[in-house]
Amino acid sequence: MVRQPSEGTAENPAADGGFRWPVRQFSLDNGLRVVVCEDRTSPIAGVNLWYNVGSRHEPAGKHGFAHLFEHLMFQGSAQVGKTEHFSVLQEVGGSAINATTSADRTNYYQTVPSAALPTALWLEADRMGSLALTQENLDNQREVVKNERRQRYDNVPYGRWAEILLALAYPEGHPYHHSTIGSMAELDSAEQSDFTAFYESYYSPDNAVLTVVGDADEAQVRGLAEEYFGALPARPRPAAPSVAALPAGIEGPVHEVVVEPVPLPRFFFGFRATRFGRPGAAADEVLAAVLGRGRGARLFSELVTKRELAQAEGSYLASWQLAWHESMLSGMVTPRPGVDPAELLAAYFEVCEQAASLAPTEAELDRARSMLEADWARELSSVGSRADQLSRHAVLFGDADRVRDRLPELLSVTAEDVRAAAERIFTPNNRVTLEYRVSTASEGN
């Protein structure tokens, strides 16, 4: 399946969605979906493998499994020794070798000289079909994840803000109530058989998308995919977890106070927004840029420059594409010394809520569009990040070519769309506020 890009013009440079490369897609008999985007400008190839499994697929009592597997997949397989995935790729000139986990997917990626493309695909196929799930590897990587939690969540100021915000915004039992880092107690209590069952349920070709971008064509990738992945069997897995329909708002306002030895008081915010790819989602992103992105944004101008209530380095509002089924706008603001936090909090909400009656000017829209268009250009500037976007659209929409719709959707947002998004989002019943207060010496004892 291929859709050739249309030609842009001087008047409409985004006629092809800013994505000027042809995209070809096919599936193997075992269900593996393959996306190929040929680009001969450099002798490199980005390889990206997305598995349709994330923290929302974890059963009760098994939180943290998806993220742990991000680590386990580098611990060896039938023909590859422990951590050799890195060394083999580095020896042939590979770079950007890593993996990430979200609520909905886990992806593994690398960029290699195009001559080493067979090596990269062979490595991915070997760990898809024969991961070394030994007790030693499990015990070792559980400790690595615990260390990661300490370094990124527990032992840094404000480290748990996103985790707490999720728990406040989504009810107990909802698949987005818990973060991807998971529960250390649940990881410790799990048996080796639990991990084997999780791997066999989700790490199979019929639950994955393989994307190759760069110096390779469809025939070459098809041949390599058949050679290395073709014999791997599809496997049954649990029914996809249902995502319960939630009320339009968070049923707030919710305000949680955390007292910790942080350097400064700080507020974090969450507002439920439109799911990525749905009508209205692009307007939400433009709204976030108009209000909260950079020194020209309304929040910075009003709270930092004019009223001198907030510190420059602690004031923003961003579109948080939390997951396929949910999105949030998230915000943060830090009061200046001597400012009453309650005054700043009221001012923050005032600026946000005023957007429901005060639509953005054409200058504000142009600024937001320029920033978002630049973001998209950066996303497409390397074979690795381009492969990531193609995998994302293939998993989310079932069609990688939907990547061409991304920029036009953002650029077509009108001032009225932004105003309507603000009216929908910034209501008291749709907000979660997490307030960090500085603990005193007596509170710390």
From TrEMBL:
Record-annotated Peptidase M16 C-terminal domain positions: 193-372
SUPFAM superfamilies recorded: LuxS/MPP-like metallohydrolase (SSF63411)
UniProt keyword Protease present: yes
Keyword Coiled coil attributed: no
GO molecular function: metal ion binding; metallopeptidase activity
Transmembrane parts of this sequence: none
Domain Peptidase M16 N-terminal: 34-151
Record keywords: Hydrolase, Metalloprotease, Protease, Zinc
GO biological process: proteolysis
UniProt-listed InterPro entries: Metalloenz_LuxS/M16, Pept_M16_N, Peptidase_M16, Peptidase_M16_C
Annotated family: Belongs to the peptidase M16 family.
Name of the protein: Insulinase family protein
Source organism of the structure: Actinospica acidithermotolerans
